[in-house]
């Protein structure tokens, strides 16, 4: 079973700053890596799929990179509404098995 | 527009089963994979399984093997998730989600969530 680790656990930054979130897989997941934003009381929101593809309607300040075992979500200039927990998720080829990382909480000061 | 409407909150006793539904509209039901994901209080997201509505093939997370069953009814564009042998640890908000794209199974559209409370 592939295990995802995310770092840091918490990130506290100011509006306008750059946020860099890391996700590491215990073995290669190729580019089958997604990022989600999850706010309290809301459903998760897909930000990035295929490691670097922005989902529909996602602002350009969100970008994803990486392949294999090391991935990064970058928020280039934080907005107050970016305060949330961010999860990475990997999948296998069929039969599809997905797993989430433990999440990174982003606080906007 | 894409809509996923989940069934209402449930309160169940330990040892029993719960079945949740998720009805899709606004698109061709059989063209996308569907997921079930849950979040227990104070915990992160936990992927439970996936179903291909075109044929009904499923894959479940190892954690839930033997306890979860996902089905679909193409006539009503509805997917179902049954979880049996409930314990207090199954208290959670359960989401269904649809793949973002026809050619990528990654979940992109989500239902509103269904709260399941397991209580004696």
Account of the 3D structure:
The complex is a heterodimer of chains A (109) and B (120). By secondary structure, chain A is an all-beta fold. Chain A starts with a strand and ends with a strand. In chain A, strands 2, 4, 5, 6, 9, 10 and 11 form a seven-stranded mixed β-sheet that branches. Chain A is built from no helices and eleven strands. By secondary structure, chain B is mainly beta. Chain B is 0% helix and 54% strand. The mean pLDDT of chain B is 97.
Run of helices and strands of chain A: EEEEEEEEEEE
The assigned structural class of chain B equals mainly beta
Distance between the first and last residues' Cα of chain B: 40 Å
Number of strands of chain B: 11
**DSSP strand content of chain A:** over 45%
Low-confidence stretches of chain B: none
Write down how many β-strands of chain A occur, each being a DSSP E stretch of 2 or more residues: 11
User: In one word, what is the shape of chain A?
Assistant: globular
Runs of chain A in which pLDDT lies below 50 for 5 or more consecutive residues are none
Secondary-structure-based class of chain A equals: mainly beta
Topology, element by element:
The complex is a heterodimer of chains A (109) and B (120).
Chain A: E1 4-7, E2 10-13, E3 19-25, E4 33-38, E5 45-49, E6 53-54, E7 62-67, E8 70-75, E9 84-91, E10 98-100, E11 104-108
Parallel strand pairs in A: 2-11
Antiparallel strand pairs in A: 1-3, 3-8, 4-5, 4-9, 5-6, 7-8, 9-10, 9-11
Chain B: E1 3-6, E2 10-12, E3 18-25, E4 34-39, E5 45-51, E6 58-60, E7 68-73, E8 78-83, E9 92-101, E10 104-110, E11 114-118
Parallel strand pairs in B: 2-11
Antiparallel strand pairs in B: 1-3, 3-8, 4-5, 4-9, 5-6, 7-8, 9-10, 9-11
């Amino acid at each position: 079973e592939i295990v995802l680790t995310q770092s840091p656990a918490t990130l506290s930054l100011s509006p306008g700053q750059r946020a860099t979130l890391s996700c590491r897989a215990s073995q290669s997941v190729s580019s089958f890596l997604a990022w989600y934003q999850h706010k309290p009381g809301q459903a998760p929101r897909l930000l990035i799929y295929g490691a670097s593809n922005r989902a529909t309607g996602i602002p350009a300040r969100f970008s994803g990179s990486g392949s294999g075992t090391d991935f990064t979500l970058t928020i280039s200039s934080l907005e107050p509404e970016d305060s949330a927990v961010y999860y990475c998720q990997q999948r296998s080829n069929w039969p599809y098995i997905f797993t989430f990382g433990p999440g990174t909480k982003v606080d906007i000061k | 527009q894409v809509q996923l409407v989940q069934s209402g909150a449930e309160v169940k006793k330990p040892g029993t089963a719960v079945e949740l539904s998720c009805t899709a509209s606004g698109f061709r039901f059989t063209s996308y994979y569907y997921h079930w994901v849950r979040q227990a209080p104070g915990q992160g997201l936990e992927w439970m399984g996936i179903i291909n509505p075109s044929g009904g093939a499923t894959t479940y997370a190892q954690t839930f093997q033997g306890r979860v069953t996902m089905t679909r009814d193409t006539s009503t564009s509805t997917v179902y998730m049954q979880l049996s042998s409930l314990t207090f640890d199954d208290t959670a908000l359960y989401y269904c989600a649809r793949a973002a794209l026809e050619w990528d199974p990654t979940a992109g559209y989500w239902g509103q969530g269904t709260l399941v409370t397991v209580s004696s």
